[in-house]
Amino acid sequence: MPAPPTLLEPDLLAADPAGLADVGRLVTELTREAAGALRRRTGPLPALTPQELARLLDAQLPEGPLPRTGGGREAVLALARSYAAHTVDLADPHAAAHLQPPALSVAAAADVLASVFNASVDTWDSGPYAVEIERRVVRALAALAGYGPEGDGVLTPGGTASNLQALLIARDAALGARRDVRSAGLTGLAAEPVVYCSELAHFSVARACAVLGLGEDAVRLIPADGAHRMRTDELARALAGRRENEVPIAVVATAGTTDYGSVDPLPEIAALAARHGVRLHVDAAYGGGALFSDRMRPLLDGIEAADTVTIDLHKTAWQPAAASVLLARDGRDFAATTGLRVAYLNPDDDGAAGYDGLLGHSLATTRRADALKVAATFLALGQEGIGAMLDACHDLALHAAGTVTSHPRLELTAAPTLTTVVFRYLPRARGADADAVNGALRRRLLARGTALIGRTDAAGGVRLKLTLLNPQATKNDIDELIAAVVAAGSAVEEAA
Ligand SMILES: Cc1ncc(COP(=O)(O)O)c(C=O)c1O
C-alpha cells in the first residue's frame, strides 16, 4: 500500500498544477472503481437491511475515534468502491421515490472544479469569477421567470432555505426593517402575524415561521380542491375575514406540491394578494423546472407576479444538491434584509469601487461556487435541453398513470401534473388493511433493493408515489416498476 501523503508532497493541495493533475488521476481512479461497483448492482438500493448496511461500514469506517494515521489513497479507493456499491443509484430506471434526480454528468464534473478552487461567493476577492457567474445565472433565471431588470436572486442550500429567506424578506417588509418582533407588539397579544398557504404546502413554510419568531401558529392552511390546488374562494375568505390584530406577512402559493406536483392557481392568487396588499411568495421548488420547457411553461403563468420565487435546480434541473435559488422581483429586497456591510469582508469603499461579493444577498457567509455547475449545465444543454428532460419525465408520468388506471389491482389517486403519480395497491382480500399492505409492500421493495418508490398519506390513507425524474427511463422500465409493485403487494398478502 502506498504511504499516506505527507505535508511535503507537491500534489497535496488540489488547486496547484501538480495537485490538479493528481485530482484528475484520483477522480479517474475513483470513478473507475465506482463504475465497476455500479455494473455489479442489481437495483437502486442495496439488498440489505439498515442494520446489515451499518455492519458493512464497520469494516471500513468503524465507530469510535478518528483514525490516528491515514491509509493513503488505497483507503479512498476502497471507500469509493463500497460507496458506489451501497448508496442510492438514482440513474437506475426503477428509482422513483423522491424529488431527487440523477445528477447530470456535466454538472457533477463542474462541481469537482468548484471544490478544487474552493472559491466562496461572499466577497469579491474570495471568488471573483464565481461571484459574477452566480450573478448572471440568477439574473437569467429571474428573466426566465418573467421578472424585469430589477429582478435578482441568490443560490441557497435548498428549498427549505429559500422559503425561509423569502419569508424573512416578507416578515421584514410587513413588520419594518428593524426586524424586532417586539417593536411590532408581537410578543404581546396585540398583533398576530399570519402566513397563508394551502394545506398541501411544504412543511418548510411552517418551519420558517417558527424560525422567524412568527410561530407555526402563524400559518393559516387554506383547503385544496379536488385537483390538489389551493382554493382561491377560501383564500379570499381568509384574507377578507382576518381579524384586526392579524398582520398578513405573505401568501405562499405552491407550484408543484411535494405529494402531487399540482400547481396552485397563480394568477388568481396573485390578484388576491395584490388586492389585499400582501406579498406573494411562490414555492416552485419542484415546479420551477417547467420554466425550461415550452410545453410545461404555461403551468407557471402568473409566477411573474410573485414577489419572490423558490426554484430547486437540484430537483427539476438535474443538479447535484445543493442548488436552490431564491428569486426576487425587486432585488432591493435582499439589501433590505440581508444587506450587511462587515469591515473585514465588504467595507463600503470597496463596494463603491465595485469590489462586492454576494454576502449581502445571503444568510450564509462562506458559500460554495454552486453556480459553476449550473452555468456549465446551461451552457452545455441550454434551456431546451433541460426542458426536454422534464418533458420526457412528464411523458413517463402520463404513461405510468395510464398503466395504473388499467390495472385491476391498482387505483390512481391523482393524475399527474408534472412528473408524480400517486396511487395505491388494492388488496385482494376483502377487509384487508390497505394501508398496512401498501406500507409493507414498499418496505418489501426497499429490502430487496430492486425498486425504490415513494409513499405518503393522501386521500385518507397510505398512498404510493412514483416521482419520475429519470429522463432516460423507458415506458418499459415504468411498466416493470409497476409490475414489481403489484408483485410485492401480492407477496405481502400471501405472507399475511
Ligand atoms: C414544494 C417543496 N418546497 C420545498 C422543499 C424543500 O426543499 P429542500 O429539500 O431542497 O430543502 C421541497 C422538498 O421536497 C418541496 O417539495
TrEMBL record:
Gene3D superfamilies with a match to the protein in the record: Aspartate Aminotransferase, domain 1 (3.90.1150.10), Type I PLP-dependent aspartate aminotransferase-like (Major domain) (3.40.640.10)
Keywords: Decarboxylase, Lyase, Pyridoxal phosphate
Cofactor(s) of this protein: pyridoxal 5'-phosphate
One Pfam assignment: Pyridoxal_deC
SUPFAM superfamilies the record matches: PLP-dependent transferases
Entry keyword Cell inner membrane: no
The organism's place on the tree of life at top rank: Bacteria
PANTHER family: CYSTEINE SULFINIC ACID DECARBOXYLASE (PTHR45677:SF8), GLUTAMATE DECARBOXYLASE-RELATED (PTHR45677)
Family: Belongs to the group II decarboxylase family.
Protein name, UniProt field: Pyridoxal-dependent decarboxylase
Organism of origin: Streptomyces johnsoniae
